[in-house]
Every structure is written in C-alpha cells, then in structure tokens.
C-alpha cells in the first residue's frame, strides 16, 4: 500500500506539471483530494490495517496528502499569476495614441505684447488708463495741438461719425482726458492701450483698425534723457538685452521734439531684409510732450515737462514674431493664434 | 517728394558725401529717405557714329552696321527701325551691363553675322519710360550732332548720371517741397555751404494792371505786366529738370512758371494779357458759375471757392487752374503774371470737390509758400522770361497786400536748452546750429534772441528751437537717465484684474482669444440686432459697405471667425473675445464665447458632449469664479424674452439673469443662422461685461465642517415632462431645511416604463447635522416632509 501511495504521489506530481488551466487543476484536485477522490481509497485501506500500524501508516498517508495539497496550492498560485499576466497582456494599449485633451487656449498675440509692455511699466508705478473709442474731435485733435485745418489731420485720415464725433485715430485722447480729470494737476504716469482706427484700405501692411499703447509721463524735471532711458529699457525688454536704440527726428503735433525710435537689427548692422539693409528697425514714435498739450491739459509748461511713447502694437507684434501680413492679426486664423499657447 | 540729386548739387556742396551717408543723415534729421532711383544704369558705353548700314542677309528687319567708336570700327547688328547712316548713337560695348534689362553684352553672331556690341535705346539704359517720347521708346537714341564720338561718359553727356531721391516730408516741414528751401535744409543737415542765386527785381516798364480782394481768403495778390514774349520750346536744361520732377514741358513761358514754382514753392499763374477784358483784377469768394478751365474741363464754382476775376469773368480758379480763354498759347505776346497767396484750407476743400489737385493747389494747401518771397518768385519768373522768352519789357509789381505773418523772434537760454535735453551743449555748438540754419540771432549773457525765417512756419516756441538743436547736433548726445519719480507700484485696477481673471479661466479651459473688427456691414448689423433697442453708430463716410456700422454685440464677429476657420478645414473652433461694443446710448464691453465642434476633443476620443450644458457649465464656472452663488442667478428660457428671433435655438438656449436682471444669453445657435454663416453646430454665450464687472462678489463665510458623517438618500420622482428640474430642487431645498446639505440630480429619464408627458427625476440628497449623528428616524421625518412638499408644489409622485 505504501508503494501505491508513492505511485499516486508520483503520478500526481507528474500530472500537475502538465496542467495549464486553472479549471483542469481544480477538477484534478477534486479527483485526488476530495472525500470521494483518490485518497478516499487509502482512507478505506487504513481502516483495514491492524491498529498498531494505523498511526504510522496514517501519518504517512497524511504526509503525502499535505504534500500534494501544497503542491496543488502552488500550482494554483502559479496558474493564477499566469492568467493575470495573460489578462494584463491582453489589456495592453497603444501608448502612442493621443491623450484626452486638456490643452489650454492661446492669448491673442497682440494682447501678449500689450501685457508684456504693461508688465515692464507697472513696477515703475505706471497705471493703466482706458478711454472711449468713439471719441470727440476735441479730445482726439484739439487737445493734442491739432486744431481744425491743421495739416496733420490729413496725415491721419479719420472715420467721422458726425462733425464732432469720430473713431479715435490714436490712444492719445486718453492722455488729454487723464490730464483734464486730474484736477490737482499732480504728476501723471499712465499707459493707455486700445483699439484705434484710420481710413486705410486693408492690405498686407495697412489696417483700418489697429492697436496702440501709449505711455505718458508728466512731472517736474522730466528731460529728454528720461525718455531715452525709458525707450532703451523697453527696447531691451521687448527685443533682447543686446539691442540698442537710435532716435531720429520726426514730427507729431503733440510732442516737441518728436522722434522715431529704431532698434538695432539682429543682423548686427550687417544688413538684411528685415532692416532693409540699414541695420535699424523702426519700432515706435515718441517725444517730449508739446507745451501746448500741457497747457490744454491745465499743466503749466514752465513747471511741468513730460514725455510720451506711442507703441504700434501691430508692428511690434509682427516684428517680434516675424508675422508678415497685418491681416493675420485680425482674421483670427487659429493656425496663427494657437502658436502662442506658451505666452501667457 | 522726389528730387534730382544733381539739381541739389548745383546749390549745395555735397562733395565727399556718399549716397549711404546722405540717406542716413537725412533720416536722422527727420527726412526719411524712402527710395533711391538712378536715372539710368549702364556700364561700358561709348558714343559712336554709324558709318554704314546694310540690310542683314538673313533677316527682313535687322541691319548690319559699321560703327566708328574712335578707337576702332565695330560691326554691330541692330534691329531698331530708325538706324541709318550718319547718326550718332549710344554703343554698349562687349562686356557692358544693362541692369534695367538684365543684359550683359557679349560678342557673337546674330543670324550668322558677327555682332560686337549693341546700339541702345534709353529704355535699355533703364530710363523711366514716362520721361520718353514714343519715338524714343520705339527705337535707338539718336544723339545730337554735337556728341563727341569716342566719349565714354555717355550718361553724363545725356544728363542721366543722376539719382532721384524719394524723401518723406513730415507735414510741419512742407517748406522743403521747394527746391531752394530743401537746399537750405540739406546745407544745415550736412553743415555745407549753400549758394542760392540772389534774385533782383529788374523792372523796366510801367504796370497798368491794378488788383484788389474782397475776401479774406486772399491776403496777397500781385500782378506784373510782361510784354513782347516769343513762345517756343524752353531750353533743354529746363525741360530736363521739369521732366525729372514729373512736370511736362509745354513751352518756354509755361515752363518758366512751373520751374519757378518748383524752385521757390510759389505758385504762379500767367494770363494772355490781350485776352483779358479789363486791367482790373478782383478776388472774390461768392461766385456761382461754371468755368471752362485750360484743361478743357468744366468746373462748377460754388460760394466760398476763391476765384480771380477780371471784368465780369472768372479768369482763374484761384490757386488751382486758370480759365481757358486767357490761357497762354503759341500766339501769346503779352503776359499778366500773377503771384498770390490764397487760403490753403479753402483750396484743399474746393479741390476735393473739383476732383483735381494741381501743383499750385497742393503748394497752397500744404503751406509750401513763403509769404515773404512771393514778389521774388514773380521777379525770378520775369527775369527768366526776359532771358528765355525774349520779353521786351517787365513792369514793376502791383499788389494787394494784407499779409499777417510776421518775422518771429524767440528768446532762449543755453540753460533752457540743456535742461530740456539733459545735455551739455556749449555756446559754440548751439550758435553753430543757428548758423547752419541761417537763423539770425543775437547773443547776450548765455541768452539768444533768434529770428525765425518766414519759410520756417513750423517754429514758434522754445521747444521748437530745442528740437532744431538736438536734431542737428544729434540725438546721440542726449544721455540715458531714468526719471526720478515715485515708483511705488499702483497695479491694475479692479476691472483690469477681473478681465485677466476671466481671460485666464477661459484660456485654461482651452478657448482661444480672438480680436476682430469693430466695423461691420449694415446687413450684418441689422441681422444680429435683436437684443436691445439701442441705436447703431454709423460712419458718415464709410470706406466700404462692409465696414459701415459699429457693432453692438460680438455675435456676428465670433460666428464669422468660426466660418473663416471652418472654411480652412479647422473644424473645432473654441474662441472667446472681450471687446467694446457701441451704440448711440453708450460704449459698453462684452464677453463672448463660441464653441463649434467641441472643445479639447480629438477625432479619436470624441465622447465629450457638445450641447447646451457644455456652455452652461462654462458659464456656471465663471459665476463661481466671481463668487456669485446660485441664489443670485437663474437661467430662463431664451424665447420667453426674445420670442421672435432666429439667432438662437428657441428650445436650447437661455438668458442668464443675475439679481433678477438679464446679463447675457447662451445656448445653441439657431440652424438658420448657422446656415447663413455656413457654420457647423455652434454654442454661443454673450455677457454684458461692463455690468458684470460692477457686481459685488459674495464674501467668503467659512462654514465649519461637521464631525458627524453625512447620510445620502436617493429619491426618484415622477413629474410632468415640462417641469423645470430647478423647481423641484428649490422645493426640496426649502422643505429640507438646514439639515439638507446638498441635492444633486443623477438621472432624468423619459421613455419606456414612464407615462408619456411625464419624466422621472432621480436625485441624491445629502443630510448632515453638525451636532449629532443622524438616525434613520430623523432622516425619514425630513424625507417625508420633502416628499409632501414635492407632491404639493410640483405634483410629483414617487416612482415605483
Ligand atoms: Zn538687419
């Protein structure tokens, strides 16, 4: 009987090795270990042996049973692991497919530039002032030293609504309004961003609507050197630390002297198409506030001086990012706008 | 303006200044050079003489010529119809480069006949065709007999070694549109000598003409009598100068007038004195009649237009164009020469109506005229008429003179200049500026009194003089120094910060910011005009009908932006814009959001629903961000407020009410509008941002959280299908009292197992008590109360 027991053990050990399915293993386990299984024969046989042999034989049978039980358990575990592995393998996905989208949107490139300029000036104590786009002739022209019949009115052909109401042609009326509003005639440091309008046909370089940002400082003891330092700061922050500025004489009715401001080109003055081989790129206009403008705003020009900087946001945006057609700033083509996602 | 550099060089010494330096310095001094155009561009030319000219054996239009170029005789094949024996011609030698036509001359054979060079037309040398006659354009240039064979300096001989400079002139410096004035300015910029010929009034006869003005728009009018002229072509040098400056030569008399205007800026007009009715000129501005002008066109004169009259006739539309009957002809013998000063603004206004802008009109309206040189211009013309038109006698000037301009004197100190600029300019440097500009000055004790020449009508203040100083001495002399002012940061205003808050929220959701045009067409404006009774602002002279109305809302702009993108195969468009809107009543600001074909979905994973609730969710998020809690706002059916419209889907859109007032609307765009704009289904939201910014946000009131666990109970209620769920929620909340923490809908169902016209609404209610653990009995009590209320107020029944 002991041989039979050993044979069974041997047989089971061999058989278990061949089983690959959990279900087959479970069935085989029942066949061997259940009350009606293979071991029941030995239990019956055990009843037949003499009493004195029972303990040792019983122990042997039990030993084998325990061995086989643990063998089954081992195999069960092995198969479970294997099945889980197979299951997980079946769940394999293509990690190269795109993820669910949580893309943020893009700010409009011109607003990126406006915000950038505001961030340069805010820490210096400037405030952002706003004004109406439908403006009175008085604030748009008269207050800015552009009386009726002035030749500069020709320079900026205007969209009129009535004889005295118009779409503002620049953000400068906000200057005039701010000076007027400041009854105490204390120093002023403001930025005025916004939409402005001129009677231009739209093409690659002209737009009937465009964006300006004006910086205005009025204080005692303001000099042209203050303007120059401020322009230099802005040019370096906007275009890079290595850039330099150059001032050229110009004309705006509301500043005197008036200057066009050029920034040095990245070609290092060697000449390239961007700077039309001059080494310099025109970026904005500026000047010392005209005494007549100060007077109109209620400031005494012998006491107060000021400077003003007029940023053409469209032009700066185009230069900064290399956009070649101004209409790209207004047609809201998402192929253009979404390129600016990282600029907040 | 465009001017000939050679002409300038006659009066200003520009030797040793390269073209690049010339352009750069002009730009720095305020005169930007916009272009440089050589009159002709060709190398390796020589003047030759055609010795023989035979027909080409293999062509019916080519000729084989022998051309003497002094050093040798060249055989050249020529295709020009006007080539013939004996003429002097321009020869481009082998190796010559004709840049305008991109030709390099090579020796070779043309139809088997050797050709060593090319006979040139001026077109081939790159001369502007507008300056050439038909004959010159069709054939080779035939030179005058005086041309020297073998002369290699052909461009100089032809006067084509010149460069035309295109310079932009700011409106304060229109004085330089006169060549003499320009020369003075260039002399100042380059600190070089300027030699303008002095003009003397050499009259030798009497003047029987008299003049008067009865309008204040003519402040000066002068007339001079010139007798016994011969009309014939003007000298070539004069024609050449006029042509380069885009003035067509006509005859010596007219050309002289135009030449003087070009040089001095002063418009002149010449009348055939024998065609005038009387000897008395009268200037008026109250005439209404038609005038046949010397360009054979008829102009309607209205009140306010300035006219020159003689007898009962308008003989000149003042400062614009003369009449036909008194014009200079080839038979003219005696001339009345007018030099006057008319109101530029009136002339500009009149010219706009006439539809012409002559040089005279342009000079008056741009104030090119130097009020104190008018009589000199007249004298200059008279002298030239004597020299080049054989005038027998020149009378003295008779004039009406009510000029206002006075020579200005400005007092300024060295300190004032240096203080304004933060510079350290010395007396010597500043004095040099006045000298370069030809400004007379007196200097005493660090202070100048500067006399401003009358042609510099841009200078009237100290600041103007300071500009002259820094412009000529160079802006590079101004140091860099930061202003010393209070730099305490003021930051953005509340509204500006709120705008940024909104923008960042929407950007984070994946919406892109747009910026669109304010002006829209009338038809678009009216189509989208359903939301208010405000009146549109309309331009009085729009450029196009597409841009005539100022938008009152942003809907057309955003929908058209979507259409623009979808037409370019960008199907998913999720955008927002914050912009001003305009009406007669006020200028407001709006926020608009539009989403077409979803937001952040890909074609591969597209199970995110794109419907009303998407846009509503975004709006609810925005309200929460601004601390506006649900007790303050409500969404109500759109068609209740806007029953007759096709902009929004009547059943799938809502108005947003805050504090009982409408602040905006949201929902799906109406299919008819989608079709009009050619759009895929689109969600839209618009908010009155100006009003929204004024709302107070709720203060945060911290609620301690309960130590006791919350308990959830579900309830499924059967209600009429058209009952808004919000009503059910409100009822439950009211009945639930303080223990009911939260009610959430988790299912709304219609269909099988639910009677038609009814729906089942399943809700989860969360109860919590901050003082004890809630027992089943407590909850059952509240639950019953809630159910009773729902039965009573919403006719709801528990779904079995
Ligand atoms: Zn460059």
Descriptive report:
The complex is a heterodimer of chains A (344) and B (800). Chain A has twelve helices and nine strands. Chain A is of the alpha+beta class. In chain A, the strands form two sheets. Chain A has a seven-stranded mixed sheet, with helices on both faces. In chain A, strands 2-3 form a two-stranded antiparallel sheet. Chain B has 800 residues and is of the alpha+beta class. Chain B has six domains: 2-39 and 163-190, Phenylalanyl-tRNA Synthetase, Chain B, domain 1 (2-Layer Sandwich); 48-151, Beta Barrel (OB fold (Dihydrolipoamide Acetyltransferase, E2P)); 210-401, Phenylalanyl-tRNA Synthetase, Chain B, domain 3; 408-477, Phenylalanyl-tRNA Synthetase, Chain B, domain 1, CATH 3.30.56; 494-693, BirA Bifunctional Protein, domain 2, CATH 3.30.930; 711-798, 2-Layer Sandwich (Alpha-Beta Plaits), CATH 3.30.70.380. Chain B contains 22 helices and 41 strands. Chain B has a seven-stranded mixed sheet with strand order 29-32-33-37-36-35-34. In chain B, strands 3, 4, 5, 6, 11 and 12 form a six-stranded antiparallel sheet that branches. A five-stranded mixed sheet of chain B has the order 14-17-20-21-22, with no helix packed on it. In chain B, a hairpin with a 2-residue loop joins strand 35 and strand 36. In chain B, helix 12 (427-436) crosses helix 13. The longest helix of chain B has 19 residues, at 776-794. The N and C termini of chain B lie far apart (91 Å). The interface between A and B is large, with 84 and 90 residues. The structure holds zinc ion. Zinc ion binds next to loops of chain A.
Keywords:
heterodimer, A: 344 residues, alpha+beta, BirA Bifunctional Protein, domain 2, two-stranded antiparallel sheet, 9 strands, B: 800 residues, Phenylalanyl-tRNA Synthetase, Chain B, domain 1, OB fold (Dihydrolipoamide Acetyltransferase, E2P), Phenylalanyl-tRNA Synthetase, Chain B, domain 3, seven-stranded mixed β-sheet, 22 helices, binds zinc ion
């Amino acid at each position: 009987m002991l041989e039979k027991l050993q044979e069974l053990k041997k047989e089971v050990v061999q058989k278990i090795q061949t089983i690959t399915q959990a279900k087959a293993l479970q069935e085989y386990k029942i066949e061997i270990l259940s009350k009606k299984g293979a071991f029941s024969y030995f239990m019956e046989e055990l009843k037949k042996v003499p009493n004195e042999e029972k303990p040792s034989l019983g122990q042997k049978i039990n030993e084998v049973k325990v061995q086989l039980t643990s063998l089954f358990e081992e195999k069960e575990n092995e198969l479970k692991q294997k099945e889980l592995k197979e299951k997980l393998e079946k769940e394999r996905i293509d990690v190269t497919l795109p993820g669910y989208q949580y893309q943020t949107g893009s700010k409009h490139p011109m607003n990126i530039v406006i915000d950038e300029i505001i961030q340069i000036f805010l820490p210096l104590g400037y405030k952002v002032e706003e004004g109406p786009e439908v403006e009175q002739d008085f604030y748009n022209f008269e207050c800015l030293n552009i009386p009726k019949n002035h030749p500069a009115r020709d320079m900026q052909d205007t969209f009129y609504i009535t004889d005295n109401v118009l779409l503002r042609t620049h953000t400068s009326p906000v200057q005039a309004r701010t000076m007027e509003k400041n009854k105490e005639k204390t120093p002023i440091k403001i930025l005025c961003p916004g939409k402005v309008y001129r009677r231009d046909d739209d093409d690659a370089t002209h737009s009937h609507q465009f964006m300006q940002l004006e910086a205005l400082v009025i204080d005692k003891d303001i000099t042209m050197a203050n303007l120059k330092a401020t322009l230099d700061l802005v040019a370096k922050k906007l275009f890079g630390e290595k850039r330099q500025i150059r001032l050229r004489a110009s004309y705006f009715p509301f500043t005197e002297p008036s200057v066009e401001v050029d920034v040095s080109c990245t070609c290092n003055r060697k000449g390239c198409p961007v700077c039309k081989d001059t080494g310099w790129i025109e970026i904005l206009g500026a000047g010392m506030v005209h005494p007549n403008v100060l007077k109109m705003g209620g400031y005494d020009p012998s006491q107060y001086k000021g400077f003003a900087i007029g940023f053409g946001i469209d032009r700066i945006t185009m230069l900064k990012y290399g956009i070649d057609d101004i209409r790209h700033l207004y047609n809201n083509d998402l192929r253009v706008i979404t390129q600016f996602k990282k600029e907040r | 303006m465009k001017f000939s550099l050679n002409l300038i060089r006659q009066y200003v010494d520009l030797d040793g200044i390269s073209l690049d330096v010339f352009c750069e310095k002009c730009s720095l001094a305020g005169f930007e050079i916009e272009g440089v155009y050589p009159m002709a561009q060709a190398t390796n030319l020589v003047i030759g003489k055609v010795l023989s000219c035979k027909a080409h054996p293999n062509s019916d239009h080519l000729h084989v010529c022998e051309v003497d170029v002094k050093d040798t005789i060249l055989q050249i094949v020529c295709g020009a119809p006007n080539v013939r024996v004996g003429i002097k011609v321009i020869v481009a030698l082998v190796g010559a480069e004709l840049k305008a036509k991109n030709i390099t001359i090579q020796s070779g054979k043309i139809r088997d006949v050797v050709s060593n060079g090319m006979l040139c037309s001026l077109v081939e040398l790159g001369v502007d065709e507008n300056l050439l006659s038909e004959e010159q354009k069709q054939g080779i240039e035939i030179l005058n007999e005086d041309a020297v064979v073998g002369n290699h300096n052909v461009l100089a001989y032809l006067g084509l070694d010149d460069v035309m400079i295109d310079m932009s002139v700011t409106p304060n410096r229109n004085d330089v549109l006169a060549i003499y004035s320009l020369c003075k300015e260039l002399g100042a910029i380059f600190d070089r000598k300027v030699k303008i010929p002095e003009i003397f009034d050499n009259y030798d006869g009497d003047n029987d003409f008299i003049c008067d003005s009865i309008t204040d728009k003519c402040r000066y009018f002068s007339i001079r009598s010139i007798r016994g002229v011969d009309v014939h072509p003007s000298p070539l040098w004069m024609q050449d100068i006029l042509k380069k400056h885009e003035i067509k030569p006509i005859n010596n008399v007219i050309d002289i007038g135009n030449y003087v205007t070009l040089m001095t800026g002063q418009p002149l007009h010449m009348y055939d004195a024998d065609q005038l009715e009387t000897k008395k000129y009268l200037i008026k501005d109250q005439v209404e009649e038609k005038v046949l002008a010397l360009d054979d066109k008829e102009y309607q004169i209205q009140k306010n237009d300035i006219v020159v009259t003689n007898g009962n006739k308008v003989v000149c539309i003042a400062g614009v164009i003369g009449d036909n009957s008194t014009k200079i002809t080839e038979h003219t013998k005696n001339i009345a020469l007018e030099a006057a000063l008319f109101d530029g603004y009136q002339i500009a206004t009149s010219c706009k109506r006439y539809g012409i802008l002559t040089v005279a009109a342009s000079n008056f309206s741009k104030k090119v005229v130097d009020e104190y040189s008018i009589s000199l211009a007249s004298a200059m013309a008279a002298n030239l008429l004597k020299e080049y038109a054989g005038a027998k006698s020149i009378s003295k000037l008779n004039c009406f003179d009510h000029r206002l301009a006075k020579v200005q004197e400005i007092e300024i100190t060295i300190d004032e200049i240096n203080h304004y600029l933060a510079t350290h300019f010395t007396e010597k440097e500043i004095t040099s500026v006045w000298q370069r500009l030809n400004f007379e000055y007196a200097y005493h004790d660090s202070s100048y009194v500067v006399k401003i020449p009358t042609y510099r009508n841009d200078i009237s203040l100290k600041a103007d003089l300071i500009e002259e100083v820094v412009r000529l001495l160079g802006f590079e002399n101004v140091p860099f120094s930061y202003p010393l002012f209070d730099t305490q940061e003021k930051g953005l205003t509340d509204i500006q910060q709120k705008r940024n808050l909104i923008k960042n929220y929407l950007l984070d959701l994946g919406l892109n910011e747009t910026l669109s045009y304010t002006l829209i067409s009338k038809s678009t404006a009216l189509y989208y005009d359903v939301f208010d009774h405000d009146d549109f602002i309309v331009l009085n002279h729009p450029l196009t009908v597409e841009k005539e109305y100022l938008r009152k809302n942003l809907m057309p702009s955003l929908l058209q932006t979507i259409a623009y993108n979808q037409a370019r195969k960008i199907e998913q468009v999720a955008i927002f814009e914050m912009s001003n809107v305009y009406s007669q009543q006020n200028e407001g600001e709006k926020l608009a959001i539009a989403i077409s074909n979803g937001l952040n979905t890909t074609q591969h994973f597209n199970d995110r629903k794109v419907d009303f609730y998407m846009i509503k969710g975004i709006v609810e998020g925005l309200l929460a961000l601004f601390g506006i809690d649900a007790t303050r706002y409500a969404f109500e059916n759109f068609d209740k407020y806007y029953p007759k419209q096709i902009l929004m889907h009547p059943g799938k859109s809502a108005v947003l009410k805050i504090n009982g007032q409408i602040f905006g609307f949201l929902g799906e765009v109406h299919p008819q509008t989608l079709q009009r704009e050619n759009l895929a289904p689109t969600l839209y939201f618009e908010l009155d941002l100006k009003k929204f910014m004024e709302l107070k946000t709720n203060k945060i009131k911290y609620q301690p959280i309960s130590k006791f666990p919350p308990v959830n109970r579900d309830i499924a209620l059967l209600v009429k299908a058209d009952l808004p769920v919000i009503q059910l929620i409100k009822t439950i909340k009211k009945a639930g009292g303080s223990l009911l923490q939260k009610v959430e809908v988790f299912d709304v169902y219609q269909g099988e197992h639910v009677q038609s016209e009814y729906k089942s609404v399943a809700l989860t209610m969360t109860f919590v008590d901050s003082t004890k653990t809630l027992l089943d009995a407590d909850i059952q009590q509240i639950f019953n109360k809630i159910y009773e209320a729902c039965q009573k107020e919403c006719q709801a029944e528990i779904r079995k």
